[in-house]
Amino acid sequence: MAPAAAGATTYSVTINDGTIYSFTVDNDTYDNIGTTLNNNPWWEDNTLANVIATASDATSGGEPVEFARSASNTGTSGIVVTTYNTASQVDLAASEQFEGSESANYAVFQSLSYVPEIDGAALAKGTFVLAALSLYTLGARRERPRGKRA
C-alpha cells in the first residue's frame, strides 16, 4: 500500500457485502506507479474493479478516476493498462486502455474495513436482557408499602 500524498483526498466506497475500500487518486503513469497499482485489491479482479468503480463518485479535477485492473505487453511503450473508470454516466464502469507512459488519475488503495454485522442470536439475547431489566426497574419503582389492610 502506498502512503497517501500530502493533502491527498481519501475516498471511501462501500460495496454490497459491506466491505469499505478507501483510496486516493494519483495522477501519474503506470510506468511510474505500476508496482503500487499491482498491489490494489482490484488488480486482476475485473468484477471487483467494476463494482468499486460503479460505486465510486470520486473524481480528480473533473477527470475520471481509473481503477487499473490489468496490464499487457501490447502497447507501443511496452505495456497497456486496462481500467474501469467513473467518467461515463451511461456506462459508469466503462473499460479503457492506457499506454504505460500515459498519465491518468489512478485510484491507489489505502485501506480496507468492514461494516460490522449484527449477530441475530446475540441481538435476541440482548433484547431479552434489556426487557427483563426494564421490567425489574418498573417493579422497583412501583413497590407498595407493606402494612395491614383495613
Describe what this molecule looks like in 3D.
By secondary structure, this protein is an alpha+beta fold. 27% of the residues lie in helices and 30% in strands. A hairpin with a 4-residue loop joins strand 1 (11-14) and strand 2. The termini are far apart.
Shape: rod-shaped
Structural class: alpha+beta
* Helix percentage: 25-40%
Low-confidence stretches: none
Query: Could you tell me the mean pLDDT?
Result: 77
Labels describing this entry:
150 residues, alpha+beta, three-stranded antiparallel beta sheet, rod-shaped
Structural topology:
Elements: E1 11-14, E2 19-29, H1 30-38, H2 46-55, E3 66-72, E4 80-85, E5 95-99, E6 103-114, H3 120-141
Summarize the structure in short:
Helices cover 27% and strands 30% of the residues. A hairpin with a 4-residue loop joins strand 1 and strand 2.
